[in-house]
Amino acid sequence: MGEIIQIVILGLALGGVYALMGSGLSLVFGVMRIVNLAHPSLIMGGAYVAYWGFKLYGVDPLIMLPVAVVILAATAVILYKLVFEREARSAKYSEMTVLLTFALAMVVEGALGTAFTNTQRVTSPDYATDAFFIGDVFIPKGQLYAGMVSLAIIGALALFLKYSRFGYAIRATTQNREAAELLGVNVNLVGLVSFAIGIGLAGAAGSLVSFVFSFYPSKHWEWIAILMSLVVLGGMGSILGTVLASLILSVIAAFVGTYFGATWSTLTFFVALFVVLMVRPQGLFGEKPELA
Amino acid sequence: MEKLLEVSSLTAGYGDGPAILDGAHLSVEPGKIHCIIGPNGAGKSTLLKAICGMLKIRKGDVKFKGQSLKGLRPDQVLRKGICFVPQERALFPKMTVRENLRMGGFSLADKSGLEKRIDEIEERFPILRERRDQHAGTMSGGQQQTLAMARTLIIKPDIVMLDEPSLGLAPKIVAEMFDIMRLMAGEGITILLVEQNALTGLKNADWGVVLDLGRTLFEGPADEVLSDPRIQELYLGGKKAA
After folding, report:
1. What domain count does chain A have?
2. Whole-number mean pLDDT of chain A?
3. Which helix (H) or strand (E) holds B106?
4. 10 Å Cβ neighbour count for A159?
5. Which of A166, A175, A182 to mutate to test the interface with B (most CBs of B within 10 A)?
6. Which residues of B touch A288 (CB under 8 A)?
7. Please, are residues A239 and A154 in contact by the beta-carbon 8 Å criterion?
8. Is residue A288 part of a domain?
């Protein structure tokens, strides 16, 4: 029993971080129809911001988190103006963004490699290697903090979307862009701000990741497939779906990792993706595709 | 009587594409139900979209209370008091009924009276109160259309434009929708609607406008339009429709 609780806790903590990584991706797709393959590379950017603060000034990654959010959100505004806005009227916008963001991911990777070299890095605040013990169950502090901060940020995002005026505008634009515009929503501004929030979330996730995993510029390729499968599983654009998919699958992956070996745990996400696409192609909370 | 809305020799189309409207005109009087009819591709929906600012006016003009609406964005036209309900998907399906009504007041600068206004509207449409916490997308077609129309009332508009409000609804429900329009008109709100079903539309309207190939063929009191021989011609062959 102790072992099972142990696995569930480790799975949930990791799932929380995946949920934060995926929710930014989901938000950006939901509002902007941008399939952002560069999202994990921007998460890496957030990780390097935290690393930079930690290494040079000894600042805790959790304190660097808001700094990473601001830097990444500002980067998002520049990227949007430079890269995405000019294509926004294209009829094949979503398809176009796949290519654009693929290129962008490589540019970000190259820039990070140039600035920080390709060596493995990790921030190592005291709690990263510490743990709580409750009976036999051990809870690594680093993963626990990362998971809890992730879920707190997602909770704040959910409240913002549910109750704020801007949150109403974001949800309305996601669900029916034309109707939102007709009711007075400035959909272009909503798009830009959502993109900045989504990439800001990548920055937050990056600073948390910096003490959970060791990282290097090309590490983002390992994540994009997992994150994409989480977003598709949750239903493209549904943040709640992404969060649930992350938590559930990370726990399952933790079990698979324990009983079949770590090599197999990643497979969990893709098997789940296959199964869900066969029985419920719109994902857990996605809308049924329209028959047109 | 002074015209509330006046469209004169209007030309408009989508993007850089051909002109869908070419020489459309229309005049709207306060507190009446105006119905635009015409065959498929006549430019009926395009006309509403051009008035509300979704499409650029290429030539001609749209005047509201004597002021030109040319070059205004949809939100600016809305703030002047013209509300447009697009065809079929006018709602936010994953927002609750109450949240949809709140979105109706998004353009209001002063939100203080909004909740009270929503309460008033729920009182008038009990079904919306009953379903207030339900996602709009889970309601029946008629209920959704009721919500879309009720939502326009939040900002107390001068003109409500409806693009085929009867689409996909059973005849009994369609009659209910026209009852609501009649009620709105009774309160001084001018209705401008597009109808695929010319007979139903004209029977329920005060004024009829016949559009074909992007231009206004003729307009007049609804009963006169209904009995006009040119209508027979337009709908039953004779003249080739687009």
Report:
1. 1
2. 91
3. none
4. 11
5. A182
6. none
7. yes
8. no
- Place domain B1-81+162-242 in its CATH homologous superfamily: P-loop containing nucleotide triphosphate hydrolases (3.40.50.300)
B31 close to B188: Cβ distance less than 8 angstroms: yes
**Is the whole model's pTM more than 0.90, yes or no?**
no
Residue-range definition of the domain harbouring residue A156: 2-279
* Domain layout of chain B by residue ranges: 1-81+162-242, 88-156
Question: Is residue A60, in this structure, part of any structural domain at all?
Answer: yes
**Other C-beta atoms lying within 10 Å of the C-beta of residue A56:** 8
Q: Is residue A290 part of a domain?
A: no
Cα of B94 to nearest chain A Cα, Å: 7
Interchain contact B75–A (C-beta under 8 A): yes
The tokens for B130 are 């009953």
Pick among B51, B100, B106 to test the A interface (most A CBs inside 10 A): B106
Answer yes or no: do B86 and A180 touch at CB < 8 A.
no
Q: Find how far residue B92's CA is from the centre of its chain.
A: 18
Kindly give the confidence (pLDDT) of every residue in chain B, 242 residues in length, as a single tens digit, with 9 standing for 90 and above: 568 999 988 999 888 888 899 989 999 989 999 999 988 888 899 999 999 999 989 999 999 999 999 989 998 999 999 999 998 779 999 999 999 999 999 999 888 889 999 999 999 999 999 999 999 999 999 999 999 999 999 999 999 999 999 888 999 999 999 999 999 999 999 999 999 888 889 999 999 999 988 889 889 999 998 888 888 777 765 444 43
Q: Write the pLDDT tens digit of every residue in A175-218.
A: 998 899 999 999 889 999 999 999 999 999 999 999 999 999 99
User: How far is the C-alpha of A74 from the C-alpha of A65, rounded, in Å?
Assistant: 14
Residue A291: inside a domain, yes or no? no
Say if B95 is an interface residue toward chain A (CB within 8 Å). yes
Three-state DSSP string of B28-71: ECCCCEEEEECCCCCCHHHHHHHHHCCCCEEEEEEEECCEECCC
Residue B36 near residue B218, CB atoms below 8 Å: no
Q: Which residue in this structure is represented by tokens 């369609």?
A: B174
Write the CATH number for A87.
1.10.3470
